[in-house]
Amino acid sequence: MSNGTAKYQRLSNTAKDVYNERGCCGVIAVAIYCNVSFGQARAALERAGRKHGHGTTVSQLVSAVKELDGVELVLDKRTPTDKFTVNGAPEALSDTRRAMLLTRGHVAAMIDGVVHDYTQGRRHRVIGTLTEASYL
User: Going by C-beta distance under 8 Å and a sequence separation of 6 or more, which residues neighbour residue 103?
Assistant: First the structure.
């Protein structure tokens, strides 16, 4: 298990065991991106409008990261010529230190070239990224 997968798995276990949460990839991505606990990320997303057991919107992700990390994220939608998968993100975004990778129905965090997610080896296409404005 890679370092990124192990960290994701620890947070996922906390989500299930402590908070009875499932399908909380947005909360885990915020926790990893901001280097905070699952509970802190969950509370920030709740204040942004996320309901227990439901998914997370892009605006909720942006709001929670701004609250927890003081960073303004911007959405960069992928165009047909620059598509890549979650596994290809470290190479495609080599000039970016931190990013949130958006796929259909899922979000993952990438920190220092390591994707923190359970999708290792799967071919989930990134349809957008959330990065700090200074990286665009």
Answer: 86, 124, 125, 126, 127
Handedness of CA 61, 63, 65, 68 (dihedral sign): negative
> Who's near 20: CB < 8 A, 6+ residues apart?
none
For the segment 1-28, the average pLDDT, to the nearest whole number, is 85
**With 60 as the cut, is the pLDDT of residue 135 above it?**
no
Pairing of strands 73-77, 114-116: unpaired
Q: 86 in the Ramachandran plot: left (φ > 0), alpha (ψ -120 to 50) or beta?
A: alpha
Q: Are 28 and 15 in contact (CB under 8 A)?
A: yes
* Helix count and strand count (H, E) for the chain: 5, 7
